[in-house]
Design brief:
By secondary structure, this protein is of the alpha+beta class. The protein folds into 3 domains: 1-91, Beta Barrel (OB fold (Dihydrolipoamide Acetyltransferase, E2P)); 96-155, no CATH class; 192-410, Chloramphenicol acetyltransferase-like domain (Chloramphenicol Acetyltransferase). The protein contains 11 helices and 19 strands. α7 (242-255) crosses α8 (299-314). The radius of gyration is 26 Å and the shape is globular.
């Protein structure tokens, strides 16, 4: 008996989503609770699982199409009624599949049409891209990451013919400025549209100002070197820099509560807890999962949660609940090589700390010029609520805690 798969509730105030990627194609068998389609909402990508085991009969929406909560999106033949496997010829193929199959190069492993098309457009060798999808399949995120990082090998171009001597060139050759110019239009994902809208709203609404400081990372680097192995052996996770900054920010927020607050109309709402958003990269853009009650978490709890956020962001498996709320945000552009930046607020929050790459620079210590591993810190804040003195005080508190991590242990 055929059974419809409908769009499930996606979270408070979310009534629709876009079909991001089909993970199963008509005619393929599916297991109960196995993801069959990836939906993109304003906040996160959501996998829709099969309610029963069986065979996927039909896709009722195309990739990129907007679908409402409660709408049927696919039809599945339950395992008990399916009996023997369906013949592939009897299963309707999604619209446009034939054209895409003709245009796409042959691959060694199955790929959704949209992924196959993306591989072909960028001239990539799919066999050299690691797949993070179900059963090692390629996802759009895998291909886009390979394009951005230059990790995938492009198809080898034909060897150009030997260049003719200048005297032998045709006088009819077009000038370089008249060559055909290729352009490509790609629809923005719902997540990217939301990111763009919220960043613009932050600039239009808040009086954003940024102040800077630098921090000597010597003490933290020495602590990591001394306890890295023991920490990982005991807690099963690597000791990174982010947990130090999370704890340092919690101490600083206690001393400067205006940065752990928001404006609501003509009132200021102060938070008695620290829910720290940690910006992480995903194939669809930057997302900010939240460390709840970070002020009472241990270093190990912080590192475990951050590592888990990063892994699931790359796989598109963060939940809506994990991305909602947050009282303050930390963004680490240093992992991408950024030396200095001015981060934008994450509304309705009033502050965001930007971390940057560690770079050895000459500094003066005790009247002597020495080389130290230094990092620039940038604090962007809402000047309607926070004045310069408070912003500088916050940065100094963070700097003191990082340069003397003992402060984090004795709550100073």
């Amino acid at each position: 008996m055929a059974q419809d798969i409908v769009i499930p509730p996606l979270g408070e105030s979310i009534t629709e989503a876009s079909v991001g990627q089909w993970l199963k194609q008509p005619g393929e068998t599916v297991r109960a609770d196995e993801p069959i389609v990836l939906l993109e909402t304003d906040k996160v990508a959501v996998e829709v699982p099969a309610p029963v085991a069986g065979i996927l009969l039909e896709q009722l929406a195309a990739e990129g199409e907007t679908v409402e909560v409660g709408r049927p999106i696919a039809r599945i033949e339950a395992e008990a009624a399916a009996g023997t496997p369906l013949e592939a010829a009897a299963v309707p193929a999604p619209a446009g599949a034939d054209l895409e199959a003709e245009a796409a190069p042959a691959q060694d492993r199955p790929m959704p049409p949209s992924v196959r098309r993306l591989v072909a457009e960028h001239g990539l060798d799919a066999s050299r891209i690691a797949g993070t999808g179900k059963d090692g399949r390629l996802t759009k995120g895998d291909v886009l990451a390979a394009v951005a990082a230059g990790a995938a090998a492009k198809a080898a171009p034909a060897a150009p013919p030997p260049e003719a001597p200048p005297a032998a060139r045709s006088s009819d050759a077009p000038p370089p400025g008249l060559r055909p110019r290729r352009e490509e239009r790609v629809r923005m994902t719902r997540l990217r549209q939301t990111i763009a809208r919220r960043l613009k709203e932050a600039q239009d609404t808040a009086a954003i100002l940024t102040t800077f400081n630098d921090v000597d990372m010597s003490a933290v680097m020495a602590a990591r070197a001394a306890y890295r192995d023991a920490f990982q052996q005991k807690h099963g996770v690597r000791l990174g820099f982010m947990s130090f900054f999370v704890k340092a920010c919690c101490l600083a927020l206690r001393d400067v509560p205006a940065l752990n607050a928001r404006i609501d109309g003509d009132e200021i709402v102060y938070y008695a807890y620290c829910d720290i958003g940690v910006a992480v990269a995903s194939p669809a853009g930057l997302v900010v999962p939240v460390l709840r009650d970070a002020d009472i978490l241990s270093f190990a709890d912080c590192e475990k949660a951050i590592a888990d956020f990063g892994a699931r962001a790359r796989e598109g498996r963060l939940s809506l609940a994990e991305l909602q709320g947050g009282t303050f945000t930390i963004s680490n552009g240093g992992v991408f090589g950024s030396l200095l930046s001015t981060p934008i607020l994450n509304p309705p929050q009033s502050g965001v700390l930007g971390m940057h790459r560690i770079e050895e620079r000459p500094v003066v210590r005790g009247g002597q010029v020495v080389v130290r591993p230094m990092m620039y810190l940038a604090l962007s804040y809402d000047h309607r609520l926070i004045d310069g003195r408070e912003a500088v005080t916050f940065l100094v508190r963070v700097k003191e805690a990082i340069e003397d991590p003992t402060r984090l242990l004795i709550d100073l």
